[in-house]
Design brief:
Distance between the termini of chain C: 37 Å
Chains: A alpha/beta (295), B alpha/beta (435), C alpha/beta (370)
Number of domains of chain C: 2
Strand content of chain C: 15-25%
Oligomer: heterotrimer
Order of helices and strands of chain C: HEEEHEHEHEHEEEEEEEEHEHEHEEH
CATH topology of the largest domain in chain C: Rossmann fold
Number of strands of chain B: 17
Helix content of chain B: 25-40%
Strand content of chain B: 25-35%
Number of helices of chain C: 9
Mean pLDDT of chain B: 88
Shape of chain B: globular
Helix content of chain C: 25-40%
Bound molecules: flavin-adenine dinucleotide, adenosine monophosphate
Amino acid sequence: MHLVVCIKQVPDSAQIRVHPVTNTIMRQGVPTIINPHDLAALEEALKLCEAYGGEVTVVTMGPKMAEDALRKALTFGAHRAVLLTDRHFAGSDTLATSFALAQAIAEIGETFGTPDVVFTGKQTIDGDTAQVGPGIAKRLDLQQLTYVAKILSIDAASREITVERRAEGGSQILRTRLPCLVTMLDGADAIRRGRLDDALRAARTKVVKWSAADAGIAEPANCGLRGSPTVVKRVFAPTSREQKARQIDTTNKPLREVADGLIAAIFADQPALKHDLGFLGSTGQQGVPDVDRES
Amino acid sequence: MTKEKFDAIVVGAGMSGNAAAYAMASRGLKVLQLERGEYPGSKNVQGAIMYANMLEAIIPDFRNDAPLERHLVEQRFWIMDDTSHTGMHYRSDDFNEVTPNRYTIIRAQFDKWLSRKVCEAGGTVLCETTATGLEWDSAGKAIGVRTDRAGDVVLADVVVLAEGVNGLLGTRAGLREVPKSKNVALAVKELHFLPEEVIASRFGLTGDEGCVIEAGGTISRGMAGLGFLYTNKESISLGIGCLISNFAETMERPYALLDAFKRHPSIQPLIAGSEVKEYAAHLIPEGGFNAIPRLCGNGWVVVGDAAQLNNAVHREGSNLAMASGRMAGEAISIIKSRGGVMDKASLSLYKTILDKSFVVEDLSKQKDMPSLLHTNSPNFFTTYPQLISHAAQNFVRVDGTPKIEREIATTAAFLRARSRWGLVSDAVRLASAWR
Amino acid sequence: MSTENREACSPPSGRAAMKKELPKQFQDYRNVWVFIELEHGQVHPVSIELLGEGRKLADKLGVHLAGVVIGPPGGQGTANAIADAFAYGADLSYLVESPLLAHYRNEPFTKALTDLVSANKPEILLLGATTLGRDLAGSVATTLKTGLTADCTELNVDSDGSLAATRPTFGGSLLCTIYTLKCRPQMATVRPSVMAMPQRVNKPTGSIIRHELKMLEEEIATKVLAFFSDGDSNTANLAYADVVVAGGLGLGAVQNLQLLKDLARTLGGDFGCSRPLVQKGWMPVDRQIGQTGNTIRPKLYIAAGISGAVQHRVGVEGSDLIVAINTDPNAPIFDFAHLGVVADAISFLPALTEVFTKRLEPRNLEKFVQ
Ligand SMILES: Cc1cc2nc3c(=O)[nH]c(=O)nc-3n(C[C@H](O)[C@H](O)[C@H](O)COP(=O)(O)OP(=O)(O)OC[C@H]3O[C@@H](n4cnc5c(N)ncnc54)[C@H](O)[C@@H]3O)c2cc1C
Ligand SMILES: Cc1cc2nc3c(=O)[nH]c(=O)nc-3n(C[C@H](O)[C@H](O)[C@H](O)COP(=O)(O)OP(=O)(O)OC[C@H]3O[C@@H](n4cnc5c(N)ncnc54)[C@H](O)[C@@H]3O)c2cc1C
Ligand SMILES: Nc1ncnc2c1ncn2[C@@H]1O[C@H](COP(=O)(O)O)[C@@H](O)[C@H]1O
């Protein structure tokens, strides 16, 4: 089986700093990681590979330094890595990204064998749109299975796949034909630690680097800024709350008294909650005047 | 799978390991480098000032693409008491030369870059792979390492231990002792992010110019230690370090020390408004010449901090690490080209080269310095700084007291604090240790 | 949006500042549409929230608001959905009914919606950012080759009548406003609970425009073999709880989660957690609150032992009242909480539960889920 996993290198969003004046991202010292959800997809692909045999190809579209992410994926056990990098891709939105990736996956199919399953993560943590996966599926005319919690089975003979998909209010069991595209939820299993021979092999594997032309994209009009219907017009920092939290006094007070103080403050701020919660008053008896006036 | 065999395995991808791996790989040796961090430099901590010459010896044209922060044009030495600092500043436009001598760097980026050079030279680098033990043959020669990844032992003719000050591989195998607490400092460091323009204006810098401050005095609360502030492009590295043994005696907490340093009225305005990212603590070998362990044996050599090659007086470590790594790599390449076995006798070539170099020369010149500063730490780090600031204040304050009275008061203060004999002997000892 | 690639952070680029000249074929696109999400006969609350937003946009543009209902024929589901659409502000409704649409599947739903759009040309199309809405929106936008802005937190109309969709980027560290140039419809998704619930009004219903789904079951490759409902029993419906009590790493040990549950039960609310607790396996992922979990906007949110990282913050900021309990007076959560208690949550939570128990009627316990 040939499994293709789309991974993206993203800034570790917990550590992003914003320039206080220009509102630009200060990239210095901000580490990059593989989009965490994509690791769930990679782990699932590696598992399928163990169960059914085959190869895992990881692909990313991004700047040159995204090679680091691919190298890492190789260390986890992927067999091949393709970096799609070209200045024509700069400024791609999700439509243009899915176009470029779809073209690359088609080219991967030509060069290394048709994929049976294309994986993406549920969403990225920087773009956060969950749109690229469906976009790729549509362009390659693959059956689309999003929010897959578990791959239940693959029938190689009849070329069918059965999955559990997270839906609103429950789980769907879906069966469809191969090839298909799966966007993977974070599963129960963390990404494996590659064996020493995987790591050695990874260190020696050359990452395949493709330009737009290499990926068979003759017309760059569908790529990058030109191929992107959306445009970011303004970037700004969220307004921070003027006031910090009002602190409930805790000095030398028994906890129950502190709790009383907090409850009084809660109802003072949100009087309607008294009704919602069935407030009996501060002493626990109905009708006793409550604490509104206190604060 | 058959066991892989390499010419050399380098444990660690810090300054010394990268230098060694590059030296060997670029000479055609089959090199495997293991790094436990997520990527080279991910866990490495340094001030950090990088000295150009030692890197030039490895990669002559490093200025083309190395991630350098600022080249230093100004050095400030501060002696601090609780409210003031007395300083000497040296700034020179001469440092705006074509090939500047000192740069600030951020290790996470620098190590990654240097490691890329190792890969380009043909070395194989495995990150997130910890060497867990040395493998020995029956004759007592190191023949490879075990790692924390599932799989076999990897074999090599020689193992270069570039594992840093804490290096467990060498100490566990009994190749050297665990460094004594009086020979290691613990430094804590923070990275304070500020916009480039703000840093430029606070320190009077243009372009890539940089400024550093080294500070001693009451900030170390009587312990042997120094604080530092280095300017990077968009951040300021700020830290303080003291001997582990001092921390143990005084029960001071390193972070509290850094916190006080940050709040010192002379430092606070320089970092005001910054956003703190990355708090790190790291050890620095400070034992100097006398603490250098055995440098080679059958099938192994040790380089950099792991070999205690660190000049605490001049705050140089990374350059000794780079130099020692390069020399080990060169020695191993020579032995290899002669078809020699990597045993204790042949590997002593490394020690011979190192002994003749500035590395050992500098360390042996100041071999008494560490113990002097350490045994007299309260005088050097509390009494004198207080006296000096006192003197400086007497000198500049104009309040109607006759000048002569003030000078007498200053002298008296020195003598009260430290007997005349004490003063003289400190001075003599300091001078001779320096020489 | 793959904002990373496009230097999202620089000020408006040349292209963004450019005048938005709409190609001819899109110039007659009019009206605002809201996709009314039906799952198992129920209208998803996010669709109602979107009708509220859609109404405002339509008024600003001086156009109609339409509800789009896609589902199986005959059942109560589509009828209810149409009724809701009108009750929450729609002027007209589009309806596609077919047995093929009994359960959500990408293929027939994508076909139904894209055909509707092509035939009726809306200028704005809004969907809920649910598993269904995101699955559908991505396919529809790609088929129509138009722009789609995910997870918007604010929708507005520009002076020249284009949709200004604002959404968080880089995990909530920044916000950006996105336009769809030169393509129509302008599509956007919004997460449940991000927009306020509008008032229901009883007004005469408008026209219902029916469309046929031109598709055969044999053409659809994907089959739904089964559906396991979560029921009410054990899943979180955090997004819509009035009171939420959540815990973070500060709770220290898995057994302390009981303290949260006790307080939530007393208040008739629900409980949730920060991400690390999910990662530790202490709570299921549907109880996670924040950027990669649920967005909540309860009347009362109590956070115990949560530091208040930006990824957590973006999920709770819509709460009416945020109470934070943390031992660290400098914890970032106090920057955006309304009320703070510097205390050890492990001892304070039981005290709070005890006092609340005394002060509240015992009726809340029935409301409690789980
Ligand atoms: C706060 C501070 C400020 C400093 N400032 C300066 C300065 O301004 N200028 C200067 O020249 N020097 C400075 N130094 C000293 C300098 O940082 C060190 O001397 C230098 O980093 C030593 O390099 P090294 O390669 O020997 O060790 P390290 O850089 O510590 O590298 C050791 C590497 O080995 C890896 N490793 C360890 N064990 C294993 C294992 N078992 N398996 C795999 N990998 C392993 C580690 O992860 C690490 O990457 C400073 C030090 C500190 C702490
Ligand atoms: C891509 C990405 C997505 C993320 N998405 C989310 C998300 O959706 N939701 C989310 O929550 N996080 C998310 N995170 C994680 C987020 O960055 C933080 O790491 C996380 O929110 C921290 O959880 P915490 O507050 O429980 O733990 P910590 O940050 O460790 O905070 C624990 C707090 O408890 C306090 N404390 C300790 N002991 C006590 C005590 N006895 N009583 C009271 N207080 C005590 C401490 O002072 C501290 O403030 C995401 C991170 C990334 C990188
Ligand atoms: N530039 C990219 N290169 C490779 N895969 C990507 C890229 N962008 C997005 N993806 C994939 O698409 C998924 C959804 O991304 P997004 O739509 O940005 O949330 C991710 O989890 C990745 O698997």
